[in-house]
Amino acid sequence: MAHGIAWQKSSFSSGGDAANCVELAARQGTLLLRESDEPVTVIETTGTGLAALIRHLRDGY
Fold first, then answer.
1. Dihedral angle at the C-alpha atoms of 30, 48, 24, 59, nearest 10 degrees?
2. What is the dihedral of CA 14, 17, 18, 22, to 10 degrees?
3. What is the C-alpha separation between 18 and 53, in angstroms, rounded?
4. Is-above-0.90 flag for pTM?
C-alpha cells in the first residue's frame, strides 16, 4: 500500500532520518498516516476525520 507514495514528515518530528515521527500522504481523495518506525502500518482517513482527531487530541481527549 505504501509504495510510490510521497510521504511528508511532521514538522514536530526530530528531523533527519530518525524513526520517531508521524508521516502524512495524500492519495485519491484520502489521507494516509503512519509512524516512521512502523511504515507498513498505515491509517487511511479523510480530511474531516483527521481534523476531528486533531481537535480531540488537542482538547485532551
1. -160
2. 70
3. 24
4. no
What tens digit of pLDDT does each residue of 35-55 get?
A: 888 889 999 999 999 999 889
Query: What sign does the dihedral 14-15-18-22 (CA atoms) show?
Result: positive
Instruction: Count CA atoms closer than 13 A to 38's CA, side-chain side.
Output: 7
Q: Are β-strands 38-45 and 8-9 bridged in parallel, bridged antiparallel, or unpaired?
A: unpaired
DSSP state of 7: -
Cα Rg, the chain, nearest whole Å: 12
The amino acid present at 42, given as its one-letter code, is V
Average pLDDT value over all residues in the chain: 84
Say if residue 11's pLDDT is above 80.
Answer: no
